[in-house]
Amino acid sequence: MDLYKQEFGQQFELGFDLTQYPWLVDKSWHNDVSPSFYLKTPTGFMVLWVDYEDPKQREDSEQDRYVVMTAVNSGTDESPEVYHDEDSEKIYSSEEFISLNTLLSRLITSNTKNSSHN
Q1: Residue 46's pLDDT band (boundaries 50, 70, 90)?
Q2: CA 31/CA 103 separation, integer angstroms
């Protein structure tokens, strides 16, 4: 069972098929307001927060469903501990997955290009 389903319930819907995004690492924790996933980009780490589809179920109903923030890794490459902190910036926010898909595709494409040049 996916970690986000363990932490937020079997009924939680991301609005997309997580298996299509294998570079998203589930870091969900039940004390957070919603499931979260991190990814490594050429410029560092980012965290994707996925909130409930129904704004009435969200802790902050004004917050968009999908939010991407810059993040830090206080762990190692082998055992990352990725989170956002007071210096993190929101780089993306939307209710719609389609534009998030575009952003994720762009990020992973730039990752692939950078790793092929190394």
Answers
A1: very high
A2: 27
Task: Dihedral sign for Cα 61, 82, 89, 50, please.
Answer: negative
C-alpha neighbours within 13 Å on the C-beta side of residue 81: 4
pTM for this entry = 0.88
Could you tell me the two tokens for 113?
A: 């290009």
Which region holds residue 90: left if phi is over 0, alpha if psi is between -120 and 50, else beta? Answer: beta
Instruction: Look at residue 85 in the predicted model and tell me its pLDDT.
Output: 86
Select from 49, 112, 55 the least CA-distant residue to 84: 49
Burial of 16 (0-12, 13-18, 19+ CB in 10 A): middle
Beta strand residue intervals within the chain, DSSP E:
25-26, 36-41, 44-50, 66-73, 82-83, 90-94
